[in-house]
Amino acid sequence: MKSNILIPGGLGFIGSHIVDALSRKPEYEVVVYDIQASNNEQNIVMVRGDIFDSDKLLKVMRDKEFSSIIHMVGLASIPGCEEHPETSFRLNVLSVHSVLEAMRQCDVERLVFPSTAAIYGLTNGPKVEEKVSPRPSSLYGCHKLAAETLIRGYAQTYGLKPTILRIFNVYGDLDKEQGVISIFIRKVLAGEPIVVKGGNQLRDFIFVGDVVEAFVKSLNKNESCGESINVGSGVGVAIKEIAEMVQSGFPKVEIKYEVNGESEYSIYADVSRMTRVLGCTPTHPKIGIPRFIENCRLRYFGTRTT
Description:
- It is a single chain.
- The chain is α/β, with parallel strands linked by helices.
- The chain has a domain at 3-168 and 208-231: Rossmann fold, CATH 3.40.50.720.
- It has helices at 13-23, 54-63, 78-83, 85-106, 139-158, 180-189, 208-220, 239-249, 272-278, 285-301, and strands at residues 3-8, 28-34, 44-48, 66-70, 110-116, 161-167, 169-171, 194-197, 202-207, 228-231, 236-238, 255-258.
- The longest helix has 22 residues, at 85-106.
- The radius of gyration is 20 Å and the shape is globular.
- The protein starts with a strand and ends in a 5-residue tail after the last helix.
């Protein structure tokens, strides 16, 4: 018997990769609920709908017996959230409430939710564990923490079984990713220099395929119910190292270093819970990032570096 999975916001960066992975597994039937949805695709039901249209969302959820919801609606940009705070609150908090209410009314218990490393704030290493008290320093982090709190409230009150995945910096999709790696590569392709401010700050970079694996495994791991789990590589990589990796793939690129006017901080994940509970072994960024850069080079130039 197939498990029906509803994925609101399933056409975004990470969501589209999750949908693709689940659609290739015969044990799942995937329904994407997205404001940009159009025609159905093979093994994927597309429903065009607004996450705040509660009547339509309830109808979709009552038409099928969903085993799980993967909530991928959100505004995952710190600058974007600061520029549009009301949009951030609606997409990162109110959309979660809409889904939780629909789950409560339709007796759907299982939720997998993408949170973020930004809830930890301006912390420094060593590796950040999930038990660290969140102290977000950005509006984005505050709104994601509010969503986490809302989810826990519904879990305690109505018996929902959520898994919260705190995702670090994701790379692996030049077309949809807005992270620093793809930003640098786009600069190269536009014939512009890479600008690095400071550059010694460490960040945790995780390949999108590893993130997808964490979502998929969360669906069937009872041990993950009620857990908050870091999803990262567990390795800190300096931003200037990222620039140098891009330069190795595109040797003609120029790197310009500037003084960072803000204080630098480092953050990378303790992934022991991810490994133990989900059984995931993430790709080391110093293997995965050069591989991604080379794939981008082949895509646009068709030749390998020597």
